[in-house]
């Protein structure tokens, strides 16, 4: 045995890069929020199916979203927990795209609403978020810029959380 071999055997394998730990924690948090939201809507599938609006293709798209939301979110949560960062990003990217598909039947039926607060929210949800989800999915599939991909896939969930907080604060201040 040479001295070079024993020197290499004595050096422990490097630990995961600390900068990735923040990405794992971010994705675990985002996936947990999405899993909670998806699981809270899942009972809709087992109740009266007339609750889900729209017959035909629009209704089928909405039902597919409601059914796939908890599955994709729990898959992202499991993948982020076991350290499969890029696959967790891809699952959350698919969830963002499914959310966009969920809005399309309403847009087709009622058009784009640009009145009041919807003037900001509608273009973001119909145009910006699907582009972010698709870009994050593509970056993760190419194993490129995973930090940017994690940020892109997290923004839609963080936007929704901040919107819920804003509604809660306005209800506290002005009543319902």
Report what the structure shows.
This protein is mainly alpha-helical. The chain has helices spanning 3-10, 18-41, 43-46, 56-81, 85-110, 118-141, 146-174. The protein is 80% helix and 0% strand. The mean pLDDT is 81. It has one domain (19-174). The chain is globular, with a radius of gyration of 21 Å.
Q: What is shown here, in short?
A:
The protein is an all-alpha fold.
Helix content class:
over 70%
N- to C-terminal separation?
78 Å
Oligomer: single chain
What is the number of E strands? Answer: 0
**How many domains in all?**
1
Number of helices: 7
Could you report the average pLDDT, rounded to the nearest whole number? 81
Strand proportion, as a percent range, falls in: under 5%
SSE-based structural type: mainly alpha
Low-confidence stretches: none
**Most strands sheet:** none
Please tell me what the overall shape is. globular
Order of helices and strands: HHHHHHH
Radius of gyration: 21 Å
Q: What's the helix and strand layout?
A:
Blueprint: H1 3-10, H2 18-41, H3 43-46, H4 56-81, H5 85-110, H6 118-141, H7 146-174
Main attributes of the structure:
globular, 176 residues, mainly alpha
């Amino acid at each position: 045995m040479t001295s070079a071999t024993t020197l290499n055997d004595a050096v422990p394998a490097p630990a995961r890069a600390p900068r990735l730990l923040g990405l794992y924690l971010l994705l675990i948090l985002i996936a947990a929020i999405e899993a909670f939201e998806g699981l809270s809507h899942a009972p809709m599938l087992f109740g009266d199916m007339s609750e889900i609006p729209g017959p035909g293709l629009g209704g089928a798209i909405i039902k597919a979203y409601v059914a796939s939301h908890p599955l994709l979110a729990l898959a992202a949560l499991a993948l982020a927990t076991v350290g499969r960062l890029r696959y967790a990003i891809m699952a959350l990217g698919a969830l963002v795209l499914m959310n966009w598909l969920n809005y399309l039947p309403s847009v087709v039926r009622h058009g784009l609403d640009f009145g009041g607060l919807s003037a900001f929210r509608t273009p973001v949800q119909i145009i910006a978020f699907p582009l972010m989800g698709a870009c994050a999915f593509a970056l993760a599939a190419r194993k490129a810029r995973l930090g940017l991909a994690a940020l892109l896939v997290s923004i839609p969930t963080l936007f929704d959380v901040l919107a819920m907080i804003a509604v809660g604060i306005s209800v506290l201040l002005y009543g319902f």
